[in-house]
Amino acid sequence: MGIYSLLLFTSTFVFILLVCSVDPSCVHLWTFAFQMLWQTFWHLLIQYREYYLHEPVCTRLFLAVSSLMLLTQRITSVSMDLQEKRVTLTVNASTKRKACVMLLPLISYILSFTTLLGGPLCSYSRFVSRMAGTRPGPPPNPLGVVFLKSTQVLLLECFRYCLVYFLKHNTCDPSNSITLYRVLWVWGLAMVLRIQYYSHWRMSECLNNAAGFGFWENSPGDSPDWSGLSDGDFWTIEASTRMSEFARRWNATTASWLRRLVYMRCKHFPLFMTFSFSLWWHGLHAGQFVGVLTWAATVKADYHIHRHLRPKLSSTWRKTYICLSWINSQMIVACIIITVEIRNMSSLRLLSTTYMGLVPLFNIILLFILLKLNTDTDVVM
User: Which of 21, 85, 116, 314 lies in the 20 to 30 Å Cα band around 123?
Assistant: First the structure.
């Protein structure tokens, strides 16, 4: 990261300073405010240089800001632990040596290289217990599972390469191709973008497993379970038949962090506030506004549609409903991924020419209809 590593060291220094000087019940508020303002400043600086000055942004800066986002997760996770008294840090030691010994595990956790570049989020108490060797026994040799997961990454990348090759040699021309072909082409493009995440998460798992993290001591069965630190599995996530399932499984540790940080603490509109904060945390790009808010609306629609339709279906029709629900989820996810990843309004033009944007729009309209029906029913009763 070069000079941009100061972004991470500054956050770490300020957090340690807050831990040493602020009451544990207030440290989360101060930490959250500083960390998000610091991160937002760099996000806006990147957008200013990209969209206003039209200057190329240094790759090291992108890498540093990406790591800063993951650092925000770990720092706010510890600050919530301190606020909720799950973790106690006594830094009023009598000597500098004792104070350093108490703070070193915290610094080690914040700047842990195994999760600094790609996650996933591990709790502070779990990290310390593994590093200190206080768990019942050492984990089994991870080389077998690391080799297996590395092979899975290789297969995912081969699949992605084949998809990219097909999309490049079979371009989507709105004037000369049928609607179904355009829809499948955009779905393939979204799949290429998603596979990049799956490969990245799998490699991060490999790195953590090689370092001894992610092993479940009380896992059922005879084979060791190294899935304790995972942001998502390709087959599990892609098999989601509902948008709410996909939202919980996609980037699982980040989803849990958002739930704890925002959803469980908001008394009003928790779902909307959670997705709005996720938009802030990701950088507030124009395309992300459309993608993230569409995601929030379709998750809300999923709750109401599923609750309204499923009890009325027979066992035969439920199988058809599950298939249609999976196709609906795939189309919505494709729209969201493209708008979030392309990050500008050109993604909306792409979705409009293929009519894929009508799928989430139909779900949102159906949501308003069901809400209206529920309101009318309550008035009558």
Answer: 21
Please, are residues 259 and 275 in contact by the beta-carbon 8 Å criterion? no
Determine the Cα–Cα distance for residues 57 and 47; give it in Å rounded to an integer: 9
Digit-coded pLDDT (tens) for 300-310 = 999 888 888 87
Q: In degrees, to the nearest 5, what angle opens at C-alpha 185 toward C-alphas 184 and 189?
A: 115
| Neighbour tally for 226: CB within 10 Å | 25
**What's the pLDDT at 177?**
72
pLDDT at 91: 62
Indicate the length of the chain as a whole number.
Answer: 381
pLDDT digits (tens, 9 = 90+) for 338-356: 988 887 777 777 787 778 8
d(CA 242, CA 292): 16
Distance between CA 148 and CA 146 in Å, rounded? 5
One of 282, 306, 308, 344 is an active-site residue; which one?
A: 282
d(CA 364, CA 375): 17
Q: Which of 209, 251, 328, 363 is catalytic?
A: 251
Nearest to 89 by CA among 68, 65, 66, 106: 106
Q: Give me the residue label for tokens 């928790």.
A: 270
pTM, two decimals, is: 0.89
Residue 177: count of CB within 10 angstroms of its CB: 15
The DSSP symbol for 121 reads -
